[in-house]
Design goal:
The longest helix is centred in the first third of the chain and has 32 residues. The chain has 18 helices and no strands. It is about 75% helix and about 0% strand. The relative contact order is 0.16. Helix 3 runs antiparallel to helix 9, helix 11 runs antiparallel to helix 15 and helix 12 packs across helix 13. The chain is mainly α.
Length: about 425
Amino acid sequence: MVTRLLADISPLRESPAFRRLWAGSTFSAIGGSLTTFAVPLQVFDITRSPFAVGAIGLCQMGPTLLIGLLGGSLADSFDRRKLVIAVSCCLTAVSAALGVQAFAGLRLVWLLYALVTVQASLRSISGPARQTFIPALLSPDQLPAGLAINRLSFQITLTVGPALAGVITAVPFFGLRACYLLDAASFGASLYGLIRLPAMAPQVTTRPGLRSTAEGIGFIKRNRILAGAFLADLNATVFGLPIALFPAINAARFGGDPRTLGLFMTAIGVGGLVSAVLSGPIRHVSRHGLAMLCAVAVWGAAFAGFAVAPTLWLTLSLLAIAGAADTFTVVFRGAIVQASTPDQFRGRVTAADYVVSVGGGELGNLEAGALGSLTSPTISALSGGLVTVAGAVVIGLALPAFIRYRTARADPSRKTQTESTEGSAEGEVVSLNAG
């Protein structure tokens, strides 16, 4: 019974290519979390200004929105493996540059902003392109399990990364410098996983640019399944993500103790980690559209309860439930996006998914903070959670095709390009079907 609840790790057992990619990406993501921790701390050490720290978000948001969609057209135009390898090498150089400026003691905020902007621009290209690898390496019925394992990697990074960064930063002399250099070194693991992949050229190439990007957006508009997935995600993040309200709610209800505030985000991470570990039942779910809307509704209801929870234990429990629901939302959305998108549009649709996820979260914080200032933090969080629940119902009624959507099952007689190239040289058995 317990084993049925645990995450399905068969994609790691059956696909050496996916296993190497997952391991390398996980190590690299933990390294990236060191830089994510170090940059805001260094900016604050230089300026002592919370506004200067907040401006880092603007440096990241702009490139994501401007370059993200265009990056998708690149992924549909060139060999995706080579594209990600090239961008990863550039990201390694950016992390190294951050380390150099820290060791040199330059204390130039504009330089940090510039490097963060370049880093966000490169990630908006590599992030969507990376996500196209999974359906090429796994069969359709393994796709949800593969995405759940990827989410487990994210939750591990979210839990381990900040704690590790805090320990490293406390080391005399090295501190932040070591965070940057370890991040640069961690790209070695990522590159190992990438280099060992087979060629990932799109089946049908397109010319990169605005026209290609517009074609991808048009495809999403015509596809009710994809439209439903994107709308459900925007509904959850724009209305039901009150992270900007956490400090104010903590101050009003729990005396503003920073340790309590830290527990808020930790509770969300722990909930997501537990649900990722216990994601085994996902493989039995075929109606991904309905499942995603249910997860979004739970997410909204949990935040609505968080807004009025009178005790700390109930507050943290509801945040953990929200984190668990978020894991399922992300996995189901990813499975829908990958399964509903033909290879010729995969890069552009995945880029749109990336932009919606990042942009929706930022808009959600802006909406929650603005409404909280006009009314109160409690009203903002409560109304946002309830609107999210209502929005899930409305999307289901407006897009019945999304509710009825079922995943396709794999045809075991078909094989991917990787099955003929993986395994024999290393004595590893590979059983992959076409994605």
